[in-house]
Amino acid sequence: MSFETISVLGLGYIGLPTAAMFASKCKKVIGIDVNSTTVDTINSGKIHIVEPELDIIVQKAVNEGYLKATLSPEPADAFLIAVPTPFKTNIDPNKTDPEPDLSYIKLATKAIAPVLRKGNLVILESTSPVGATEQMSEWLALARSDLTFPQQKGESSDIRIAHCPERVLPGHVVREMVENDRVVGGMTPLCSEKAIELYKTFVEGDCVVTNARTAEMAKLTENSCRDVQIAFANELSIICDKLEIDVWELISLANRHPRINILQPGPGVGGHCIAVDPWFIVSRTPEQAKIIKTARLINDAKPKWVIEKVKLAIADFLQDNLNKMVSDITIACYGLAFKPDIDDIRESPALDITKEILQFHKGRVVAVEPNIPEQSPFLAGINLVTFERAEVLADIHVLLVEHMQFKTNKPSSGLMVDTKGIWN
Ligand SMILES: NC(=O)c1ccc[n+]([C@@H]2O[C@H](COP(=O)([O-])OP(=O)(O)OC[C@H]3O[C@@H](n4cnc5c(N)ncnc54)[C@H](O)[C@@H]3O)[C@@H](O)[C@H]2O)c1
Predict the structure, then answer these.
(1) What CATH number does residue 52 fall under?
(2) Which of 69, 269, 315, 375 could form a disulfide with 31 if both were Cys (CB 3.0 to 4.6 A apart)?
């Protein structure tokens, strides 16, 4: 079966650009989402996420009739699933580690099962714990006993199944989706072959074949590797603080070794990937995944350490200004996003730290976030001001994200809590 009609389930940061890429190659693309506002926005030729160049591609694809969005699946030649895979909060008090939540994938499979036809290819793109692709295939087999699946019939199955994780960088998705190499993990070699045939519609990078489990683990490994390396840097920053050593100088010295490349410490790890995906490994192999779990705990504990530093700065300020009270002190937090030069505040340690300061501090708290131009309900009452205003107002400046603006501007007076080492 050639791939003329392609269906993408989940039209978010990953699914929408994927759908748009196929549509830009004159494939008929049916985008499915459970959110009716998202569906309406896309059908009007607009987009609901911030991603450079994507708006132009989507508008053209919709206007020319190659892309349409809808709430319920229709028959297609291939289905790509790009729905969320968060972790769930544990209800068992004896088991505290977060567990992957596959309910979105289950619902997506339930939705496409009735429209599946012999010869269809189903690709799971959502970042998933090892075994999720096989689980998805099981769910489909249960729903469609009239069709055969790779776990039952191997290469001669009616339906082909593969896992192909996505590793694009937000802000560069349009370019990276085309240029990046892809890991293609079919449940059988023929499943991989079919998946590559589909991706080659627009992917110019290499499509590297493996099995579904290894493909799942590859994505989790990439993000866990970053998390472990950041945890090492974060631990170093705490050790250096104790030993009165400048961690930034230390790392730059160590990195002069030709085979050492230590990452930079910070206020913690955020976003919906690096702070989440390592738990998918821990949940499957809790006894074995020792470094991975420890790294998660180190990175999750870093915001609390930053809060302690802010409390120490308050105490220092009061010691130097005996006529002042805590309520006289203004604290400014610089950066709320989870990484530099973006507006995404999902799982952001900078946002959590600012909220916590707002809760315990009796004086005024303001924040500077140049990538969020207006007050938003997600900011939970945090008062946004300009850099210039914060510089004048604040007695204590807490640098949380190394946005471009903060690299070139530094408050001229006041106490600094610099979690990124660019002002000290
Ligand atoms: N955003 C990234 O940078 C990135 C990078 C690599 C991998 N991923 C992975 O890709 C997957 C999707 O992430 P995202 O950032 O695009 O998420 P997102 O939240 O931006 O988008 C998910 C979309 O799926 C929709 N949805 C939820 N349930 C659905 C269902 N049953 N049927 C149809 N649509 C449904 C939601 O309404 C939403 O529009 C996740 O597994 C994520 O870990 C994301």
Answers:
(1) 3.40.50.720
(2) 69
